[in-house]
Amino acid sequence: MGDFDVYALRRAVVGLLVVIVVAVVGYLGYKQTVAADSGESVSQESREIAQIQAQLSVISQRLDGMEKERQADLDHVRRTDSAKASADSKQPVPAPSQVIVVHPKQPQFIVSPASAVQNAQAQPAHDPAQERALAGLQQGVGSLQQGLGNLQEESASNREAWQAAVNRLADVAGQVGSQDGKIIADQEKLNQFLAQSERTALSFELRRGSTPEPVGPIRLSLQTASEKNGRYTLCVYLQDSCVQVRDRAEHEVVQLATSKDAAPLELIATRVTRDQITGYLEVPKAGASGGR
Fold it and tell me: Which of 86, 147, 169, 202 qualifies as a cystine partner to 291, CB 3.0-4.6 A?
């Protein structure tokens, strides 16, 4: 309760004492009048006045004690309200001028306007734990939304990376296809080369002065031979004409080209005597025909 209510209560108490005093004085006057008529003694009236004064003194002391207690309670309420206001500024606190809290031993008086009571009933009680839980829930929702945003961004980046990988794979597939064509062509050339490199050895024995002897796709005729020097000369017939191979040594590789596109033939004499040579002719497998 504010100072205004305390002063109003004090004025009310003083007014009440004045009324009581006036009533006592009137009563005493009345008793004096009655006592004068009835012949009562003055000493009896004096004793009654003294008792009344003593009672008034006791009442005054009690009123002072009540006022001190109310003042102490008012200070306690103010300190409590200040502590609550500092702990939570949003909690509605009744104005000190609207509430009086007295000591539990004394009667309790609460004077509040009707609007303050309605506002207090309309406003819900403040719960810090509930507010903290609500703040944590809002923070969790914010974190969830941020995580969803990051997930969407990551999904978009993964989609772009996947598309780039698909495009790169298509390019690689095209390159592999072209390389496959080249590999096939190279494989054909390699097969041709291997076919040409695979040879068949056709052995022969030639005597000097004899008729041309067929060896594979050609015919050979020995013209001279020297066992001492290990050298020889022969005639190679590709068609009807003779192509001389002069002064060749034993174990020497003599290449004979039959055409531009065909692989050359290789002639090797392994033994040379006075009138005879022995050796072999290497021809591709596809062109080998006859022989010894």
Answer: 202
* Alpha-carbon gap, residue 141 to 136, rounded angstroms: 9
Could you tell me the two tokens for 221?
């005729």
Strands 199-207 and 213-215: unpaired
**pLDDT tens-place string over residues 62-94:** 777 777 887 888 888 888 877 777 766 655 545
Q: Is the dihedral of CA 115, 120, 124, 126 positive or negative?
A: positive
- List, in sequence order, the alpha helices (H) in 88-127: 114-122
What pLDDT shows up at residue 119? 55
Q: Are 204 and 281 in contact (CB under 8 A)?
A: yes
Q: What is the amino acid identity at position 100? A: I
Distances (CA, A) of 131 to 119, 136, 186, 232: 21, 9, 80, 118
CB within 8 Å of 90: residues ≥ 6 apart: 126
Give me 238's structure tokens. Answer: 């590709």
228 alpha carbon, distance to own chain's centre: 94
Query: Which region, left, alpha or beta, applies to residue 260 given φ > 0 means left and ψ of -120 to 50 means alpha?
Result: alpha
Residues ≥6 apart with Cβ < 8 Å to 280: 201, 202, 203, 204, 267, 268, 270
Question: What are the residue boundaries of the structural domains of the chain, listed by start?
Answer: 3-121, 199-287
User: pTM higher than 0.70 for the full model?
Assistant: no
Angle at 229 between CA 207 and CA 268, to 5 degrees: 55
pLDDT at 220: 94
Q: Roughly how many angstroms between the first and final C-alpha of the chain, as a whole number?
A: 143
Amino acid letter at 50?
A
Distance separating alpha carbons of residues 207 and 130, to the nearest angstrom: 123
Q: Rg (Cα) of the chain, in Å, rounded?
A: 70
Q: Are 274 and 225 in contact (CB under 8 A)?
A: yes
